[in-house]
Amino acid sequence: MTQEHLKRVLVTGANGFQGGAVARWLAAQGHDVRGLVRDEAKAAAAGGGFTPVRGDLADPGTLRAAFRGATHAVVVMPLEYDLDTVTGYARNVAEAAHEAGVRRIVLNTNTPVPGETTRYAGFETRRRAEEVLRAGTVPVTVVRPPVYLENLFSPWNGPAIVNDGVLAYPLPEGQRVAWMSHEDLAKVAARALDDDVPAGQVLHVGGADVLTGPELAAVFGQALGREVRYLPLEVAQFEQGLAGLLGPEAAAGVAGIYHHVGEGQAPDLLCPRPAAVEEALGIRLTPAIEWVKAQPWEHWARTGA
């Protein structure tokens, strides 16, 4: 990579799945990447080619220090759904980025955002983060992904898929979704940092395939060589299980997205047109079957969890 194309990028949430994927991808492309983390030892142990920098979105001092010298930033909000808290995070980022002379921010909302105001914090806190950052002095490109395939390679989904042939998820059977991988998110975020992609856009992104639950189950069945059926979970049941992992407030924030979709108010919210994303950014998105075949599903068969 030539020196003029080298970016010094700060990636927030680099110990998380989404931020970590972005930080690793950018580092692999040769950029100088700092990952904002709360636990430097955890980040160092995980590796990935980026430099962990301890900081907190709620602490303006550590955030200013982390941004110092950065030319670009990729920001993802943590699983926090208090409106005032998220507003404060966004203001701190905007001010630190301005002070550092950052040239562009890519904000990953980690969810689509409906055009109309809703009663769900999962959407409205992300809408507020967008508003605050876009009102600042640094150009912002917003990336709005749908649902991640990695949600299925997890302790609460993987074993049931492998051992029982059941893909259970809190979406109606007929809901169409452009299921997206974390690696494709990283490709999109990295590309959105480039100067030839106009800043100020809101990019509605997704994966290569738009599939209903049963169609996705058929993809799993084809990849795994066994019958897999789709089971739509009750959102309340999903939220209850998630609360044991994330706590009730974060679980309610995440589940609100599925409540809204399940109410039938936003049939197209989770299914942006994949070809438009590939054409606009010049990238190749990963077909769902490729992603499924690449995962080490035997892990769940071994654990029997």
UniProtKB/TrEMBL annotation:
It comes from Streptomyces parvulus. The keyword Plastid does not apply. It holds the Pfam family NmrA. Belongs to the NmrA-type oxidoreductase family. It comes from the Bacteria. The lineage of its organism: Bacteria, Bacillati, Actinomycetota, Actinomycetes, Kitasatosporales. Residues 7-246 form the NmrA-like domain. The keyword Signal does not apply. This is NmrA family NAD(P)-binding protein. Keywords: NADP.
